[in-house]
Amino acid sequence: MKEEILHTALSQFLKFGIRGMSIKRLIEPLGISTKTVYKYYKSKEELLEEVLHLLYAQQYKIFETRTADQSTISLLFDIWYLAVERDYNVNDLFYWDLHYYYPKLERNIEKAVGAKFGQQFQILLLKGVNDGVFYAGIQPAVAMESIYILYNAIARTEQFKKFGASPYDVFLNTIVPYIRGICTPKGILELEEHLRSVKPFGEQEGLDKITSFS
User: Fold this and answer.
1) Whole-prediction pTM value?
2) What does the domain layout of the chain look like in residue ranges?
3) Domain 2-196 in CATH: superfamily?
4) Which end of the chain, N or C, is more open, meaning fewer C-beta atoms within 10 Å of its C-beta?
5) Is 19 in contact with 99 (CB distance < 8 Å)?
């Protein structure tokens, strides 16, 4: 039951925002009592903390489930494809509430999980350099920060929504050109080949759907 509560809470937090996610909105889809929730979680903040760990663990999942024969280019692409697809339609209040009302929790979680993700991301980029698909002169930490800034603007602000473009088109016009920019000619060929097999968000088969917002 604790896992069911946690996964439902994640879905509801992302859908309604942190302040808008009431205990009623949590227990209704589960068909349980308030007492059952408090049996496992003493407070909303304690529940939120575990929800954030779950959210970031799901983001990290792609590193753990990648296949040995998956190319560096396709893996890098898929990481950000999934991230943007998942977060673009998250209620903006979720990240706003987190930043405004729970800044310390936000910093602690991102520091703990960000270090783990950043390390794997930089290993991936260095592997790409060794494979000859990324330019040898790139600085992995800078490249990671650059992509994250684009992702953050796409998924957590209204910056690109004013254009009325689909989230997939926004992705194709922001993060994808950046990836192409750090590729060698060999890497560009691999990226173009991978792009031919990719469909718009919601239509792609073979990529794990990390969570649902329904």
Assistant:
1) 0.79
2) 2-196
3) Tetracycline Repressor, domain 2 (1.10.357.10)
4) C
5) no
